Amino acid sequence: MGARRGQAAAPPRRARKVAPNRRLSANLPRRRRARIWLAASVPLGAALVFAGLWGTFEGDLFLVREITFRGLVHAHPQVLVAESGLARPRSLFDDLSTPRAALLRDPLVRDVRLRRRFPSRLIVEVDERRPVAYWSDEVLLPVDAEGRVLPLHPAHYGWDLPILMAPAHADGAAGGAERARPSVVEGGRLVDGSARALLRLVIGIRDRVPEIARRVSVAELTGGGRVVFHLMGDEGEVRLRLETPLEKVALLSDIIRDLELKRKGFESVDLSFSDQIVVRPVDLPSTGAGEAEAAETADAAVAGGAAVAGDAAVAGGAIARPDGGAAGGDTEASTVPPGTAPWRATSTSLPAFPDEET
Length: 358
Description:
CATH class of the largest domain: Alpha Beta
CATH topology of the largest domain: Rossmann fold
Number of domains: 2
CATH architecture of the largest domain: 3-Layer(aba) Sandwich
Strand content: 25-35%
């Protein structure tokens, strides 16, 4: 607007210079400025909290101070601690895949699971390999169900296991010459196909016909897929083939019981034929007075066509015998503080593995 009439015009005002940041702050409401400061401080606070928590995790609070092994029978917990690398100080939050892989390389460990128990305990659940038979290879080698040779000395344990063996030589192709049997054990396991088939046959009989499996002392490969079972004592031998069905082997229980009722033994029972079973019975030696009395007792209970002798019941021409109870035992739980000795082991029943796996 122009100056009043008769008055001189006033000089124009100069605009006051304001720094850009001050101009922005001056133009913003106070509440909005508070929100901006809050938004800037939240990430900084979170970073400080995370740094504090990380320091706590890496500190002494969550250091592994106790390692508990479950399922051990033959493996030594201190050996497993050394093999797995768990002897050195580590946080409970460290990756457990490396110690697990190291434990699986132990020949006595079939499977293993590691679980964290806060604040400072690590639980190692071990599924051990158990011996099911001996392989005779100049010395007796304990083997598990997968054919792995276990580094255990038979003299230190009271195992009652069948001995598996094969002839040291095989017939040659011409002139009756002999050739050395190829190596059966390589790399700590049975590699020969016939030997592994024999092991599977023995395990199948153990699971299907345990009363026969308990009588088998030696299972011998004789060539051409033929097998001879040498039974305990003077019971004779059983001949069969690697492919003989387990249903047919189960008939051996009825044959033996029938012979026992007739006070007879057998020289051999041949199950190798596809359509017949050949039994060569033998008369048992004459019994003394005490044995004769026991034989009379076996035939004493006869009523209505049923006879009871020991635990074998014969009724209507059928023979039945209750299955024997399965042997069981406690598994061991060993608590090992890292880097300390001696260790102590306490017996406990091992619960089933949880669904989660580390």
